[in-house]
């Protein structure tokens, strides 16, 4: 980047490592000890991606420790609770183990309290990233062999229990599962839910979120309940775009584990067909609310997720890039990419997933641009993201107009992905 020197990059890299070390307790790197003092699912995949060029072992232990929370159904929970930073299991974050009650479920791991929801399945792509960039090839191959069956179980769970719409895509059953908790995309299904018995129409966030999680829990985390009754079921383009990319990663990793890549390639094709048939809205991909049967008209950063697929038809890629570069997103933001389109009435430059720019989604879009050979766009996304962290630090998210930091400081995925962007 203009005016920066290799020395500046070395210093930034050192700062990133010191954040990651401060946020680490044993094998686990938490997102931010003050706000999120347990292990979070996709946060750990971003940490693994970021450290993998320098420290294969740390990338592996991060993922292996997350997967100690995997349920026997294959579901990888969105939070794995631990006694870290001198805190108790129930400390520091609500809803904690007493709400999820995973210990009462026969499929949950023994002695490892977890949530009952999942998050975007970036794990196989993270393992592929670790294997692709590892200096110690033997250690990386060994890790792939250990992790492979867990990743297969995770993908099988999504393909069976979560194909609630029957069209080859996985449905999320709670906004927390998207990783983009308060995105305006969830407003409509949440408002529709207000009619459900037991919920007041004016129930505030996060009460509605807890209520929804408790309903699922009270069903015994039952797949049949999810199909027939659960009021929130949405096919999200980012979740499914990430899943598709992870299927492609698993196909490449399968031979290392002595397995056949074909089922993963077929799964990727099924997801691509599902995305194109079900979530394409003419200019971008949109979330499909399975309860109302409607595509959400809102365009958010999640709508670019399917661009992670190198096999996405070129005309769709061109349309997506048109929207991404327009004044709806990058064209009017000093610090891309806003999490919600700027012209939307719900856009809010300082509220988490309702407007601010995030390092993890910028990293995903940079990867998406790279797989389509859009080198200029990929470079721009990398440069702009590094400018954000240089100016404001490793914040959780950033104002897309002036680049000022929002949310937690010294946030793990912002530090980890900076390491990857500097490489
Ligand atoms: C945020 O989500 C948690 C619930 O999972 C919360 O708001 O309390 C999101 O940004 C999510 O993507 C992230 O994984 C989590 C921890 O960083 O925080």
From TrEMBL:
InterPro entries given in the database record: 6-hairpin_glycosidase_sf, 6hp_glycosidase-like_sf, Glycoside_hydrolase_63, MGH1-like_GH
Keyword Hydrolase: yes
Superkingdom assignment: Bacteria
Family statement: Belongs to the glycosyl hydrolase 63 family.
Biological process according to GO: oligosaccharide metabolic process; protein N-linked glycosylation
The keyword Hydrolase is assigned to this record: yes
Every Mannosylglycerate hydrolase MGH1-like glycoside hydrolase domain range: 36-414
Protein name: Mannosylglycerate hydrolase MGH1-like glycoside hydrolase domain-containing protein
GO MF, any single term: Glc3Man9GlcNAc2 oligosaccharide glucosidase activity
Swiss-Prot/TrEMBL keywords: Glycosidase, Hydrolase
SUPFAM superfamilies reported for this sequence: Six-hairpin glycosidases
Gene3D superfamilies: 1.50.10.10
């Amino acid at each position: 980047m203009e005016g920066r020197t290799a020395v500046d990059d070395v210093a930034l890299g050192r700062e990133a490592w010191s954040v990651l070390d401060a946020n680490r307790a044993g094998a686990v790197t938490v997102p931010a000890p003050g706000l999120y003092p347990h292990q979070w699912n996709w946060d750990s995949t971003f940490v693994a991606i970021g450290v993998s060029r320098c420290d294969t072992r740390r990338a592996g232990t991060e993922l292996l420790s997350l997967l100690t929370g995997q349920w026997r159904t294959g579901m990888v929970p969105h939070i794995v609770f631990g006694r870290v930073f001198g805190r108790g299991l129930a400390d520091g974050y609500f809803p904690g183990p007493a709400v999820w009650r995973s210990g009462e479920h026969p499929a949950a791991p023994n002695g490892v309290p977890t949530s009952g929801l999942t998050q975007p399945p970036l794990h196989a792509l993270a393992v592929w990233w670790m294997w692709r960039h590892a200096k110690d090839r033997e250690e990386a191959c060994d890790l792939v062999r250990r992790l492979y069956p867990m990743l297969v179980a995770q993908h099988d769970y999504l393909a069976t229990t979560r194909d609630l719409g029957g069209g080859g895509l996985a449905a999320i059953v709670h906004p927390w599962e998207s990783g983009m908790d308060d995105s305006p995309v969830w407003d409509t299904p949440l408002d529709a839910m207000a009619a459900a018995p037991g919920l007041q129409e004016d129930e505030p966030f996060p009460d509605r979120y807890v209520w929804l999680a408790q309903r699922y829990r009270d069903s015994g985390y039952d797949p049949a309940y999810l199909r027939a009754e659960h009021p929130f079921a949405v096919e999200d383009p980012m979740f499914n775009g990430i899943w598709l990319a992870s299927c492609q990663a698993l196909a490449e990793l399968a031979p290392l584990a002595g397995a056949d890549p074909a089922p993963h390639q077929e799964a990727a094709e099924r997801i691509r067909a599902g995305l194109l048939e079900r979530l394409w809205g003419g200019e971008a991909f949109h979330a499909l609310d399975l309860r109302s049967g409607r595509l959400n008209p809102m365009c958010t950063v999640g709508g670019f997720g399917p661009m992670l697929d190198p096999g996405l038809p070129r005309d769709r890629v061109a349309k997506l890039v048109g929207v991404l570069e327009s004044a709806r997103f990058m064209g009017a933001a000093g610090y891309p990419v806003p999490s919600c389109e700027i012209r939307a009435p719900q856009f809010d430059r300082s509220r988490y997933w309702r407007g601010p720019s995030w390092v993890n989604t910028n990293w995903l879009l940079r990867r998406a641009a790279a797989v389509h050979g859009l080198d200029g766009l990929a470079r721009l996304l990398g440069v702009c993201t590094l400018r954000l962290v240089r100016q404001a630090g490793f914040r959780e998210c950033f104002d897309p107009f002036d680049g000022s930091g929002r949310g937690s400081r010294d946030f793990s995925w912002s530090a980890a992905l900076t390491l990857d962007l500097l490489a």
